Every structure is written in structure tokens, then in C-alpha cells.
Amino acid sequence: MFSSFATKVTLALILGAANALPGSNAVPKLDTRTTAQHGYINVVAATLWTDSSKPRAIDEPALTHPVQLEKWLSSMNVSDYRDLTSNSRTQTQALYGARVEILNYESGWYEVAVPGQATPKNKLGYPGWVPASQVSLDQHYGKLQSSKPFATIDKAATVSLYRDSSLKSKLMEITYDTRLPVLKEKGSVIEVAVPDSGSAYLSAHDASIYKSASEIPYPTSLDLISTAKLFLGLPYLWGGMSGYAFDCSGFTHTLYHSHGISIARDADAQADFTGHGTRVEQADLQPADLMFYASNLSDPSTIYHVAMYIGEGEMVEAYDAGTPVRITPARFGDEFWGGERFLAH
Ligand SMILES: *[C@@H]1O[C@H](CO)[C@@H](O)[C@H](O)[C@H]1NC(C)=O
Ligand SMILES: *[C@@H]1O[C@H](CO)[C@@H](O)[C@H](O)[C@H]1NC(C)=O
């Protein structure tokens, strides 16, 4: 995704602070000592919109609680998907239970920033607007999230979360890379905390438990490639970052993030902004290196696409609207900007 909304961010921070003043249209329970308050995503994946005017009639299933992502994705044709990009409607997604910083409130919508999705647009995290019904203010959940180990979904694109410890009554689907605080482990069942609903249950086969992200085992290139293969065939969605659909950089961000390595959210920022990748020339590419494409090779801000090299002259990518996530011959044409390595080999 392109970084064309940098100016909006400063404004939003100012508005966020203004909203904290008495007598203004304040966020419910806003902590006036800070410009931001924590909220927690309470749907499988909340889509962040550029602003509240951007959703179309066809996007209604993406705005509800519970959200109906499969219905939304299957109702759109290729022009509807493409229009999300060309009219800059969607920005990114945040997964169930994820903490967001609330920056602003306006007529049933929160402007939030998603920590961990690094971007030059806002130092707090990736910014965008979400329906307020998709954000919980459950601060008890927040305390558990900051103090308990977490269970992370790392075996499949989507898995079931249950209401009961016998794993019979399904609460909802959750997606790959969702992280929920662990309350208890018993046999092959993990009890997790969820926003607004107390607790829920996962099969231990679907998740791994870590005390912190730094405990996640350092991956090999093969680990990253096996993870990528879980998502082959998923739809391309501008702003998509869940086990239902991805955009190019949401895909590469998620592959690395789930293995404990943080890279920026957008393609240009992944190449240029985080500073911890190493530039790799074509001849030196190794599996799991990221490959970037730019319309002007001398100007990193024109980078518009990222894919992951998987070896043997092939790459895996979420390419564009209408093209499912795929393995394809690595492209080294005019617009190949170069590679970046985030793994220490
Ligand atoms: C795609 O669906 C929209 C409605 O969502 C419709 O207006 C449009 O004509 C359709 N386009 C194509 C190419 O089928
Ligand atoms: C490409 O980027 C460079 C560096 O910013 C700039 O000097 C040059 O004019 C750009 N070329 C085109 C064709 O825009």
C-alpha cells in the first residue's frame, strides 16, 4: 500500500488530544491523561478504512459485529475488489483480541492505530477507521493481555474457537496469527481470555503458547515457506491481513510476524523504513528474502509490490485483485527493485 496519508496523521493526533477535553464529543471512558486509550478488536478481523465515508453498500458485511468476512469476500467481483485499491478505501486489518490505540471518535467510528504494524504514517501503529462496534473497551481483558502468556494460531489459515472446554459449541472462527491471553492449559485444551466475553477455548493442536513474542523460535527459511503455503489460493484483498485474504505486504508482514520477526506493514516501508533488513542483489537471493517492485528504481517511495523468494527461481505472492495467493516464477523485469533479507542465515 502507498504511504499517501502522512499529513492526516498529525491532524488525527491533534484531534485525538482535542477530543479528550471536557465538553467535546469525547470517546466513552476516554482517559484524559493520554491522547490515546486502548481498545481491543472484538471480531475475527476488523478492517481499517481510510475514513468512514469509504465503505460501499457491498461492504456492509465487513462493518458488522460479528463481522461476516466470508460473505463480504464472496459477494465482491473483481471490479469491486479493484475499486478498494483505486479509491483507497481500505488500509489494513487488525485481528481478534489485538490491542489498538484509540485516536479519535466520530459518529460511531473510532480512528485507531494498530501497534506492531509499523508505518511512517503514525508512530503508534498503522492508522485507520473502524466501526466502534468492532472495538471493545474491556480493560480487564487488557490487563490479562499485558500480563499473561499468549496462545498464537500458527498451524492453519483459520481455526475454531469454542465456548466450552469440551470443544463442542463453536463461538467463532479465528485466523492465523491471532494472539489471545492464556488463562489455563488442561490436556489438549487451552482456555483463553477474549474481549467482552470472559473466556473461550482452543484446541492445543491449533496454537502455540509463548510468554512473549521474543520466545517464538527463530525461523528457518523453510519455516517461512511452509507458512506461506498455508495461504495459497486465498483471495487478494487491498488492506487484507488475515487468514481469509491478504494484500502483498500484509502477506509478507504476517509470515514474518507469526515467526516473531517484526517488519513494517506496507511494501515501501518494508524495503525502506524499518532499517533492519539487508539489501540483497538478484544473484544473492536466498529463500525467504523479500523481493520488491518499483515504478522508479531510483525512488523507494514508488515501491508498489512485495513478494517472497522461495528458491528454484520461484516466489510466493499476493499479487492483485482477482489473482489468488500463488507461487509463480520470480520476476526480474524492469521494475524489480531488489531484495531485502530479514533472516540472519
Ligand atoms: C460487479 O458488481 C457490481 C455490484 O457490486 C456491479 O455494479 C458491476 O457491474 C459488476 N461488474 C462486473 C464486471 O461484473
Ligand atoms: C526517479 O527517481 C529519481 C530520484 O527521486 C528522480 O530523480 C527521477 O526524476 C525519477 N524518474 C522519473 C522518470 O520520474
TrEMBL record:
The lineage of its organism: Eukaryota, Fungi, Dikarya, Ascomycota, Pezizomycotina. Keywords: Hydrolase, Protease, Signal, Thiol protease. Residues 218-345 form the NlpC/P60 domain. One of its GO terms (molecular function) is cysteine-type peptidase activity. Belongs to the peptidase C40 family. Residues 1-20 form the signal peptide. Pfam families: NLPC_P60 (PF00877), SH3_YKFC_2nd (PF23795). Coiled coil: none annotated. It comes from Penicillium fimorum. One of its GO terms (biological process) is proteolysis. This is NlpC/P60 domain-containing protein. InterPro entries: NLP_P60_dom, Papain-like_cys_pep_sf, Peptidase_C40, SH3_YKFC_2nd.
